[in-house]
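=== RUN LOG ===
request id: a7f3
mode: sequence -> structure
chains: 1
length: 421
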Amino acid sequence: MTGSICNLRLWRSIISIAVTAAIVCISLAAESSEPATRRDSDGASSKPAATAPAGPLKNLKIDRKGKRVIIDAKVTPRQPRKGEPEPPMMLEFLMCKTGVKEHETLLTTDVPPSSLHAALLVLGLAPGRPAQWITPAGKKPVFISPAGAALNISVRWTDKSGKVRQVPVTDWMIEIASKKKLPKTRWIFVGSDFLDDGRYWADLEGLHISVTNFAAAVIDVPFQSTSKDAFREFAVNMSVIPPRGTPVKLIIQVVKGAQNAPAARITFNVDAIGRIKLDGKAIAPENISRAVRRFLSRHADTSADVRIDPKALVYDRERLREILEQSGLTRITFSTRELRAEILPRTPADADKAIKWWKGQFARKDDLIIDPAEDAAASLEHIKRRIKQAEALSELWADYAAGLKKALDEYEAQQKKKELD
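=== RESULT ===
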């Protein structure tokens, strides 16, 4: 089960991000890699290397052998016209989805952020720890830098003379305070998050790569930056970037050893009837400890996010907490998902009260923005689903009771036989 957590994460992306077909195509296309090409004196290839297109995601390719992801993008900043002043274009992002925050990003792409996340999972990486502020008791807040799988990012394009160029993407950035080109730096795969409604946060915001510690982005810088103009600030290096709209290849290279980066993150979900999922895939409680320990053997600084359905039992939460702590996990965050459906009555009095409330809603329907019949229909569907869940549990418990009775009968028969002997 050494690679099982990575596989679980891949399935999480396949199932939960709602881009199933696209991710399957990514996996298939990942079998091919870019062929070796002759290098120019500046280190760029003499011609763009070709990789088989990934079906619907023809703008994203995975080079498994070379441990890299290649994304088609375009230059966003507009170079000043002759005679225009050159105010620095402030950067908050390295790359965003086309049409998103184009006034503060270097590159845009049509590739969904979730597909970038999934591609990095295919290469064996686990999401790391996003930037965060913590407040120790009685002390000032402390900033914790992002940590996780390290990446090198470069950009390749064809210049006006027809020469293919490739440079670290930081060559296209300057630090405002020093006015100097940003030193080559490694980036961090922090991974975005899932919202209560199941949507991938980075897809909703359209954020791929941040330079200002945005928690929603898939990739971040490994140091403290900000969008609040207080710490490290970056701008476009207008003297070197090609014209707006220039097609480029953004090359995200996995740093050697990144698959075993100390900082990594796993996610558990507990539903209303106590069923547990690890990174989107169901797991039995008795298998959790082994999975966590094997993950910890690769990632010593592992943290866990546990999302609890508000209708789950306290027992379900505490049981999982005990398993994780006994497995060696010390950094666990518990949160309760938003309640998206009514809690059904537990007593006849509760049911009578609920019916009275519904009748009141129907009586004043003309005063309401939404016809209460819509909500009532949704509640009926919710009740049907819960009845099916209860029937499934009833069947499970009936089988359990039958098995227990059989075991008890066999035990009592053996005891009687011993007494007779």
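=== NOTES ===
The radius of gyration is 27 Å.
Residues 137 and 368 are 47 Å apart (CA to CA).
=== END ===
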